[in-house]
Amino acid sequence: MAKKLRYALYTGCTAKESTPELLKSTLAVAEKLGIELDIIEEASCCGASHLQDFDDHLSLVLNARNLCYAESREAPMVTLCNTCQLNVSMTKNRLDFDNKLKDRVNQDLSEVGLEYKGVSDVKHFLYAILEDYGLENLKKKIVKPLKNFNVAPFYGCHNIRPSSLHGKNNGGENPYVPNSLDQLIEACGGKPVDYEEKNKCCGFHADLQAPETANKLSGNALTGAVDADADFMVTPCPLCHLNLDVKQKKAGEAVGREVNIPVLHLPQVIGLALGIEPEKLGLNHHVVKAVYF
Amino acid sequence: MEKSIQTKNITVKVFRFNGDTDVLPYYKEYKLEVSQEDVVLDVLNRIKWEHSGSLSYRRSCRHGICGSCAVKVNNKGVLACKERVFDLIDLFGDELVIDPLNKQRVIKDLVIDKKDFWDKYDAVQPYLVADVEEEPEKENLVTPDEVEKIADADYCIQCGACYYSCPVIEVNPEFIGPAAFAKAYRFTSDNRDDAKIERLETVSQMGSGVWDCVKCFECAQVCPKDVNPIDKITRLHQQTFQEGVAESNVATRHAVGFKHSIEQHGFLDEGGLVFYSEGPLGMVQHIPEAVNMFKNGKIPMPWNLPKSKNLEEIKKIVKISSTAKF
Ligand code: SF4
Ligand code: SF4
Ligand code: FES
Fold first, then answer.
1. Residues of chain A with pLDDT under 70
2. Of A13, A58, A163, which has the smallest distance from its Cβ to B259's Cβ?
3. Could you tell me which residues are beta bridge partners of residue A264?
4. How far apart are the C-alpha atoms of A213 and B214, rounded to whole Å?
5. Which residue's CA lies nearest to atom 4 of ligand 1?
6. Does residue A50 share a domain with residue A97?
7. A290 inside domain
8. Is A94 contained in some domain?
């Protein structure tokens, strides 16, 4: 790599609260790989794909404001959560293609001395590693390959759909046959397993009002992975992680099965293969413990 | 000079089932040479004409407008008459599996019973409700801006590709589904329509309505006419608040709760948000998970709750940029 990679890190809420291990492991992996992550401490919540149901304009302005702080750092924004990625890039897309809307948003932002320009890209950490850092470079740093592990990739919706939005920042991932996580698992020395639910929804966004729906969708994903003989699952999305790990018992019950499968965050898997100690990756924070490490 | 036509050899596996003779469905394999001009319907026609006259599938217009020919190829919902085989080869390679939109609803081969789809479509009154004078004195004007609001929703051809790709439909048979929601929006956003409130009440019912959507974007991805149903669902959410139709329940409080949380902390107070949405009684059901989360260091103490730097700025933005009330 010619130039040191540098990003403005938008952590989102979940990595700071209910999945602290995600932030911890991301920072550990970035340090090990020599990627500079400048945390946007000024940021607010992205609205998690719920705020805009109530107030679209407020959601736009808040997300544009977050982008302003990546722009002022003169760096592309990197996200850790599929839903953050969706909300930020949807905002960016709408503002970049609609000058009237951008002006309206900038009018509000000017009240706090900010201006959205549209000069910072936004991509999920998964694709920063894959597209910018490069798998070949990553492979050179692997010291503890995840040999003998069958790993079930769980992609999560908001990184891959709609492809018209994400295409240019996710390496043109095919939403029907995604393979970025599969490649990453292989680069880390593991064996990716194939199962029908790997690109399906975990139901997170209806957890509160429709728990039966959410639990069944998560349950199908978990049993899909178990039946494909996976030792553990890996996901780039902390919201999927909450449903698959914290709610695993209920999700299993919803589909009439007892399930017990660890679910790892993407940077934890990379971190393990890079030889970072499990405690530094926060594996102790999981409800279903990854006993192998 | 002769124009060279590029061709490729593919294997097509087609879902076959005839209730009169078959105990179980099966896949029948055909090998074909296809050109860059061919769409999926050409493949089906050739199989029927050259290999197996008994193959059943729906088609009519062959112009992407009647909505009858939707099937799934390697799990991707497509209009058979619009989808180029070469594009599918790019996505999936040279082995294509053609399935009906929904295997549980097969009548024969690729033909399914769409009754559930149509019943839900009917439930949103998919027509203009208005007292139209029989001999109007003047035009009923609709401005270009107003047309633009509904145009993409109006392009729906009821092919069902979104509906039979929606994961909620698979687990909750009550769910109205993306196509009918898009249709409801097409009329709630039409200024000539008199049934806006009634429609919004229908689509905001808990269990069947928009709040049960899991926001997976399957419908936006699959739609061959770019209707973008999830976008219309979002707008229906917004309209229920704008028109005062939204009732106070766990889903509406959850959406609104984000604003309060952001105003107070910049970031979410996850526990506080669940409490605000569920109320003290509803909170009880989350206790076992909360205990588990607490034990594993997943619940920050109130004094450790993350707060944004520049919180004052966020508070100001929330104040000046808020446009909705509840
Ligand atoms: S976004 Fe909603 S309506 Fe669309 S397919 Fe997903 S759950 Fe169904
Ligand atoms: S919204 Fe699109 S996919 Fe759904 S029925 Fe209409 S045209 Fe078909
Ligand atoms: S045959 Fe009419 S839409 Fe395909």
1. 1-2
2. A58
3. A234
4. 9
5. B219
6. yes
7. no
8. yes
User: Cα A218 vs. chain centroid, distance in angstroms?
Assistant: 17
Which residues span the domain enclosing A87?
A: 6-123
Measured between alpha carbons, how far is residue B198 from residues B61, B123, B124, B238, B244 in Å? 34, 11, 9, 15, 12
- Give the burial class of A131: count Cβ atoms within 10 A of its Cβ; 0-12 exposed, 13-18 middle, 19 or more buried: middle
A232 shares a domain with A186: yes
Cα of B223 from ligand 2 centre, angstroms:
5
N residues, chain B: 326
Show the tokens assigned to A89.
């890039």
Percent of chain B with pLDDT over 70: 99
Domains (range + CATH), chain B: 7-112 (3.10.20.30), 115-133+141-242 (1.10.1060.10), 250-321 (no CATH)
Same domain? A16 vs A112: yes
**Quick one: pLDDT at residue B3?**
63
B197 touches chain A (CB under 8 A): no
Distance of CA A61 to the CA centre of its chain: 22
Per-residue pLDDT for B306 more than 80? no
Give pLDDT, residue B304. 75
Q: How many domains does chain A have?
A: 2
Q: Do A29 and A163 belong together in one domain? A: no
Instruction: Supply the CATH number for residue A84's domain.
Output: 1.20.1050.140
Q: Which residues 15-44 on chain B approach chain A with CB closer than 8 angstroms? A: none
Residue B103 pLDDT grade (very low, low, confident, very high; cuts 50, 70, 90): very high
Burial of residue B244 (CB within 10 Å: 0-12, 13-18, 19+) is: exposed
